[in-house]
Amino acid sequence: MKIALMGNPNVGKSTVFNILTGSNQQVGNWSGKTVERKSGVIQRANEEIELIDLPGTYSLTAYSQEEIITREYILREKPDVVMAMVDASNIERNLYLVLQILELAPRVVIGLNMMDLAKHAGITIHSNKLALALNVPVVEIVAAKGKGVEEFLTGAIRVGKFKKDPLLDQVPYPEELEKRIQEMELLLADTLWATRYPLRWLAMKRLERDPEIGQTWKSIPQLSQRDKSKDSCCDPGDPVKYELQETVTLPGVELLQAYESEGWSQDRFEMAVADAEYQYISRILPEIRIHENPTKPTFTDILDSWILSSFWGYPIMFVILSIVFWFSFVASAPLGGAVSQGMAWSADAIVAFLQQINAPDALQSLVRDGIFAGVGAVLAFVPQIAIFFAFFSLMQDSGYLARAAFLGDRFMQLMGLHGKSFFSLVSGFGCNVPAIMATRTLENPKDRLITMLINPLIPCVPRLGVMSAVVAAFFPGSRGALVMVSLLLLSMILVMFSALFLRRVVKQTEHSAFVMELPPYHIPTLRNVLLPTWQKTYSFLKRAWTYILAASIVVWVLSSYPQGVPMNATWAGKMGGWLTFIGEPLGFDWKIMVAIVFGFTAKETTLSTLGILYGVAADASQSIAQAMTGAMTPLGAYTFLVVYMLYIPCLASVITTYKESRSLGWTSFGVAYNLILSFIIGWLVFQGGQVLGL
Ligand SMILES: Nc1nc2c(ncn2[C@@H]2O[C@H](COP(=O)(O)OP(=O)(O)OP(=O)(O)O)[C@@H](O)[C@H]2O)c(=O)[nH]1
Ligand SMILES: [Mg+2]
C-alpha cells in the first residue's frame, strides 16, 4: 500500500513522517522545508506500507517546483491513500487544498493537526461535522507530541482497504461553469488520458490550460491509434518509451477557442473554480469551527510586535545572531582545546606503543604526522559544529528564522532578490548543499539561479570552524572577534554585490513580490533540536574518519616522499612550487597553496593539510595555527582567511549546483566566479595592507 502525506506548507507532515518511519527529515517552523519527496517503509499488521512525505503546497496548479513535484507524484504514482494534513488553527485556506486533493485522489483521510495551538487560540473544531461535510474520515492530532499519529495511520489503512470510487464532486459550481466542464468531459471521455486521470479533474485542467498536463498529453498516443493490448507497457510518466510515438494534438482546441470568444478565458476558468471552492468552504465553516475570541491578540502577535517592529526588530536580530556566533565560535574554544589535547595524548600513546613494538619509522610518522595531525585538526572543531547546529535548530523550530527572513527581505530587495532567498542564504551558514537545494521554493528560475550561485560565498560551519581556528592563533583575544566579524561582513557585501552583478549577467529585470506566511511561535521540541544537531555532527565526524582520513594519508605521502629530501622537494613541495606564481602576490607560501588545492574536495581538508605540512604533531603542545604563526604575518593570515572563505565551493556543493541548475555552463561559471573573485579580493587585501604598512 502506498500512502502519501499532503498538505499546506508547515502543517507538520514531516513530523508525522518522522514519527511513523523513524526517519529524520528536516522539520522546522517555516514554510517550504521539504522540497523533494521522501519515502519510508513501515510495517503494520503484516502489511508493508510505503509512506511518502511530499513538499507542502497551497494548491495543485503547476506554478512552482513544489507544486509540480507533489502533483506529479499523485498523478503518476497514484498512491492508494492520501493523508491530507490540515492546520486546525488555520483551517480555512487549508481546506482549499483539501478540496483539490479530493478532486484528484479517490481515498483520503484528513489529519487535523496542531490541535494544541487551536485550543490555545480558543478555537473549537467539530471534526465529526467536517467529516460529514466532506465525506472523509477526520482524525485529530498533535504531531509534535505524537498524539493521534498512530490513529491517523490506522484511519488511512482502513480507507485504503475500501475499494471506493473517486469521491463525487461536492462543490457546487455555477451553472455556466458546470456546463462547460461537462462539455469538456464528454470530449475527453474516450481518450486514453481519461483512463489515467479522474475525468472531471482532467476536464477542469484542460479548461485552465494547465501547462504541465499539456506536456504529458503530447506524449500519450490516442487509444484508437494503438493496439490496446500493449497499453500496459506505457506509462505517461516515461517519456523515453514514448520517443517514437507520434505527437497527438490535444483534443478540445476548438472548444477552448469557442469558449474564449464567449468570454471564458483561461484565467476566468481558474478564478471561477477557485471562487466556487472558497464559497463552499465559507459556507460549511461556521458549522465546523467556533472561534471564541477572534480579536484577542495571541502570544505570537505580542511577541511579533517587538520582534518585527521596524525599530526593535534589527537590534534584536543582531543580538540573537551575536549570541549564536559568540557561543559557537568563541565560547566553544576551550572545548575545542580539550579535544585537541585529547587527540595529542592519544597520538603520544599510540606512537609510544608503536615504538615499543619496534614499528617502522614510516608507520609512526604516518600515525603522528599524517593521521593525527590531519584528522585531529578537523576534529578540534566538532564542539563548534555541534553548538552552532543546536542554536540553528532552536531558531528554526521556534519560528524565529522565519521572522529573520521577513526582516531580511528588505536587504534581499536591495539585491533585487526575493525574501525566500533569505532561507537559502541563512542555511548556507550551516551547509551550502541543502542551502542550494532550498532554492527550489523560488518560483522565478533566474532568481533561483542567482541565489544558487551566490550561496557558496557564505561560509558554512566547517569553513567557519577552520577560520576561527586560524583567527584564534593570529588574532588572540577580542581582536579575534573583530576579525571574524569583518570577514562575515565582507561575505555579506560580496553576496550583495554578486547578486546585483549576476542579475545583470542573467538579464533579470523582474522583481518578484515576497509573500511569506509567518508561522506562530512554537516551543521547540527537544527532539527537533537534538536530533538534527546530532545528525549533522555525526555526518561531520563520519567524514573526518573516512574522507579526511584518506586525504590526510595522501597528503602525508605526498609530503614525505621522496624520502630524505627537504620538504619543499617532496611531491607536495613540487606541486606547491608550481602554484607559487599565483600565491606569491598574495603572500602565500607553497604549503598554503597545496592546502587550498586540497580544500576543493572538502573544505576542512585545508586545515588537515596545513596540520600535516606545518608538522603540528611533531610537538603536541603546538596547535597548527601556532605552527603557522611562525610562517606568516597577521596580514598574510588575514589574506588567507579571505581567500579561503571565498575561493571555491566544495565538491559536494558544485555537484548540487549542477544537479539543481542542470547546466554545466552555469556550474562552471559559478566555480570560476568564486575562484577569480577570491583571488582578486585577496590580492587587494594583501597589497592594500602592505601599502598601509600592516
Ligand atoms: N504546536 C504544535 N507544533 C507542531 C505540531 N506538529 C508539528 N509542529 C511543528 O510545526 C512545525 C512544522 O512541522 P513540519 O513537520 O516541518 O511541517 P511540514 O508540513 O513538513 O512543512 P514543509 O515541509 O515546510 O511543508 C515544526 O516546528 C513542528 O515542530 C503540533 O501538533 N503542535
Ligand atoms: Mg516537510
Please describe the topology of this protein.
Layout (H helix, E strand, L loop, with lengths): L1 E6 L5 H9 L16 E7 L2 E7 L11 H13 L3 E7 L3 H14 L3 E6 L1 H6 L2 E3 L1 H8 L3 E3 L8 H13 L13 H14 L3 H5 L2 H9 L3 H8 L34 H9 L4 H23 E3 L7 H9 L5 H19 L1 H24 L4 H19 L2 H17 L1 H15 L6 H7 L4 H6 L7 H10 L6 H14 L3 H28 L20 H35 L10 H13 L6 H9 L6 H9 L10 H6 L4 H13 L4 H11 L2 H28 L3
Parallel strand pairs: 1-3, 1-4, 4-5, 5-7
Antiparallel strand pairs: 2-3, 6-8
Helix pairs in contact: 3-12, 5-12, 7-9, 14-17, 15-16, 16-24, 16-27, 17-24, 21-23, 22-23, 22-29, 23-29, 24-27, 25-26, 26-27, 29-31, 30-31
The structure holds guanosine-5'-triphosphate and magnesium ion.
Magnesium ion binds next to helix 1.
Describe the protein's architecture and organization.
Helices cover 61% and strands 6% of the residues. With 694 residues, it is of the alpha/beta class. The chain has 3 domains: 2-161, 3-Layer(aba) Sandwich (Rossmann fold); 177-263, Helix Hairpins (Orthogonal Bundle), CATH 1.10.287; 319-510 and 530-691, no CATH class. A 6-stranded mixed β-sheet has the order 2-3-1-4-5-7. Strands 6-8 form a two-stranded antiparallel sheet. The protein is elongated and about 90 Å long. Mean pLDDT is 83; it is low at 217-246 and 617-621. The structure holds guanosine-5'-triphosphate and magnesium ion. Residues 7, 9-15, 27-29, 31-34, 55-56, 113-114, 116-117, 142-144, 397, 522, 525, 528 line the site of guanosine-5'-triphosphate (GTP).
